[in-house]
Amino acid sequence: MSVSSLSSLSDNETPLRSRRNDIKLNAFEKYDDKEFRARFRVSKETVLYLDSVFGSTIKPLTKRNRSLQPVDQILITLRYYATGSYQRVIGDIFHIEQPSVHRIVHRVTVKIANMRSLFINMPTAEERLEVANDFYAIAGFPRVMGAIDCTHIKINSPGGAQSESFRNRKGYFSLNVQMVCDAKLRIRNIIARWPGSVHDSTIFNDSPLCAQLERGDFTPMVLLGDSGYPCRPYLLTPILNPRTPAEEAYNRSQIRTRNPIERLFGVLKRRFPCLHYGLGLKTTNIPPIIVACAVLHNIAISRQDEVVEEDDPLTIVEEEIMVQPSNETNQNFIVRTLLINTYFSG
Question: Which PANTHER family match (predicted)?
Answer without folding.
Answer: DDE TNP4 DOMAIN-CONTAINING PROTEIN-RELATED, PTHR22930
